[in-house]
Amino acid sequence: MIILVANLGSTSFKYRLYDLADRPTIGGEKELARGGVERIGAPESRVYARTGGKDIETVMPVPDHAVALRAALEQLTGNGGPLGSIEEVAAVGFKAVHGGRVSGVVRVTPDVLAAMEEMREVAPAHNPPYVKAMRLLGEKLPSVPLVAAFETGFHATIPDRNGLYAVPTEWVEKFRVRRFGFHGASHRYVAGRLMELQAKRPLRAVSCHLGGSSSICTIRDGKSVGTSMGMSPQSGLPQNNRAGDLDPFVLLHVAKATGRSFEDLLVELSGKAGLAGMSGTSGDMRDLEEAAAAGNARARTAIDVYVGSIRHWLGAGIVELGGLDELAFAGGIGENSPLVRAEVCAGLEDLGIKLDATANAHPGDKSQPGGGERTISAPDSKVTIRVIPTNEELVVARQTRDLLVQKEGA
Questions:
Q1: Exposure winner among 78, 270, 348, 403, fewest CB in 10 A?
Q2: Domain 200-392: which CATH class?
Q3: Domain boundaries, the chain
Q4: Which residues share a beta bridge with 205?
Q5: Measuring CA to CA, which residue among 377, 382, 395 is closest to residue 328?
Q6: What span, in angstroms and rounded, lies between the C-alpha atoms of 269 and 290?
Q7: Residue 86 gets which letter from DSSP?
Q8: What are phi and psi of 298, to 5 degrees?
Q9: Fold identical between 2-149 and 200-392?
Q10: How far apart are alpha carbons 229 and 309 in whole angstroms?
Q11: Spelled out in words, what is the top-level CATH class assigned to the domain 2-149?
Q12: DSSP string for residues in 8-62
């Protein structure tokens, strides 16, 4: 069963093409191709692909996710691509973000698209490009099923004490105001790997998905019990260009001082704030670290605020769990920034968290199975610290396959 997975980040697009067995089996998963686009909307975007053992890379302007999706389809069906026609795909799985009243894994229908549209103001950087991509593929591939695997689904196990805001009950019941949580595919993958790697039960873990968009998840025995993101992906940690947590009365104060509307200010908070707004750089951690090393004080402060927020949520997770057995770093920053990992773990030896500086600095061997997965804790650390390159696309491919098989057997 060939499954194409589309993963749209706020400034990125990734795809993977899998050939999966109809039932979960050892060795029954084969990746046929992968590719994507980084820094969408920037003057120069990186377009890359790996298929047939060959790597392809181009730098070109990619203004939006629709253009990125078209480029992916051309890569898959063009000369040397693994597909003669896109109709060979059994389904397209989307790592969908926010469906509000719709969650879990579902076939994309007009009602699902309507539910995503209802939450577009809550997820302005994600829902509009996903809805646009789903509609585009629905038109181009009317015979291929589209499946949405919502990020919120993994966090359905969060107890009310960690999932509810202190707002009137009417807000919760009528407007679904609560902590939904996101990056569910990544945290689900990390949770699954930790359950495979660690025999201890109960297993207390904190997953740090750190990238252009970041969140922390508190996990007990493979299930989410708390997360840093709330009702929207704009919340929690400072993001690449989004503010993260913010006192709502800041908006009232700035609106009155400037005469600007709430809507105008929210647009700025969701596109020109975060690490980019603080530092004056692109907000990409690679650029921030380079600028900070060159003496840019604003870049250094942005890194400090980011790390401080990670440590805040890590501490909250340790308290919720009553201790910690596993600390995992995933995502582009989590996997590739020894600086951020070191600063997150600095001074936490009394909590049993002790990093091995040499192991942390080593990039791992990404050519081997596991793609750079490694342990970076010191031998005498009570908490095992790991780098786990996440595989959100594989999670979505499995979920898509399982839904199709379930429907066929119904």
A1: 78
A2: alpha beta
A3: 2-149, 200-392
A4: 219, 326
A5: 377
A6: 24
A7: G
A8: -65, -40
A9: yes
A10: 12
A11: alpha beta
A12: E-SSEEEEEEEEE-SS--TT-EEEEEEEEEESTTSSSEEEEEEETTEEEEEEE--
pLDDT of residue 371: 57
Q: Sort residue 215 into left (φ over 0), alpha (ψ -120 to 50) or beta.
A: beta
| pLDDT tops 50 at residue 369 | no
Q: Yes or no: say if 390 and 330 are a contact pair by the CB < 8 Å rule.
A: yes
Note the pLDDT tens digit of each residue in 278-296.
999 889 999 999 999 999 9
Say how far apart CA 370 and CA 356 lie, in whole Å: 20
* Most confident of the following: 38-52, 57-71, 326-340: 326-340
CA torsion sign for 251, 254, 256, 258 is negative
Burial of 173-186, coded b for 16+ CB within 10 Å and e otherwise, reads eeeebbbbbbbbbb
**Residue 367 binned pLDDT confidence (cut-offs 50, 70, 90):** low
Cα 312 from Cα 306, distance rounded (Å): 10
User: How far apart are the C-alpha atoms of 342 and 148, rounded to whole Å?
Assistant: 36
Q: Who has greater pLDDT, 67 or 151?
A: 151
What is the model's pTM?
0.89
Of the segments 66-80, 126-140, 190-204, which one has the largest average pLDDT value? 190-204
Q: How far is CA 306 from CA 237, 250, 391, in A?
A: 7, 20, 23
Q: Which amino acid is at 360?
A: N
Q: What tens digit of pLDDT does each residue of 220-267 get?
A: 999 999 999 999 999 999 999 999 999 999 999 999 999 999 999 998
How far apart CA 219 and CA 318 sit, in angstroms, is 10
For the segment 93-136, what is each residue's pLDDT rounded down to a tens digit? 999 999 999 999 999 999 999 999 999 989 988 899 899 889 98
Most distant CA atoms of the chain, gap in Å: 62
Tokens standing for residue 188 = 């689900």
Say which residue the tokens 């780098």 belong to. Answer: 387
Query: What percentage of residues in the chain have a pLDDT greater than 70?
Result: 97
Alpha carbon distance 350, 352 (integer Å): 5
Sign of torsion, CA 370 376 379 384? negative
Q: Which two tokens stand for residue 291?
A: 């600028």
